[in-house]
Specification:
It is built from six helices and three strands; from the N terminus they run H-H-H-E-H-E-E-H-H. It has about 160 residues and is α+β, with helices and mostly antiparallel strands. It has a three-stranded antiparallel sheet, with helices on one face.
């Protein structure tokens, strides 16, 4: 069997094996999967997937102190880690309802609570009602308003 640029089935199989060994993303080969029936009891006997919301106790301690009005310093061995720490603490602080101010001095990060309020996300109903909240280019097929919307069709006739 000839498979275009891949040559034969054996060559294609070799390429798939090499791609899997190298960790490349490959499409799922559904014909190789074994699909069977299971019972609800077997499903319930397996442990559920975690929420993925594990917060490091040291991060929680830092945020507790910052929320209480303290200024904390975090010294890191590598300055490249500062951005990740800032992002992580900022996300957790937003979940708690406040923002953070940061200052950096070499490999030391200073953190304190910001006076700036946290902006809440718009609800889905608010997003659906207000067309001005949509960002980016308008969708195809959506009626546009303005002088060019009708003017172009009139000149083409």
């Amino acid at each position: 069997m000839f498979l275009g640029n891949w040559g034969t089935c054996e060559a294609a199989d070799r390429m798939v094996v090499q791609a899997r060994e190298r960790g490349w993303v490959m499409p799922i080969r559904w014909d190789e999967l074994e699909v069977g029936d299971a019972t609800d009891e077997a499903f319930d006997a397996l442990p559920g997937r975690g929420t993925g919301r594990h917060i490091d106790p040291r991060q929680a301690e830092i945020l507790d102190d910052v929320a209480a009005g303290k200024v904390r310093t975090i010294r890191v061995p590598d300055e490249r880690d500062l951005r990740g720490i800032r992002v992580s603490l900022g996300r957790l602080a937003t979940q708690r309802g406040f923002k953070l101010d940061y200052r950096i001095d070499g490999s030391t990060l200073y953190v304190r609570r910001s006076d700036e309020p946290v902006r809440g996300r718009l609800s889905t109903r608010t997003q659906a009602e207000g067309a001005s909240t949509r960002r980016g280019r308008p969708r195809r097929g959506v009626e546009t308003t303005g002088p060019d919307a009708d003017g172009l069709s009139e000149t083409m006739e």
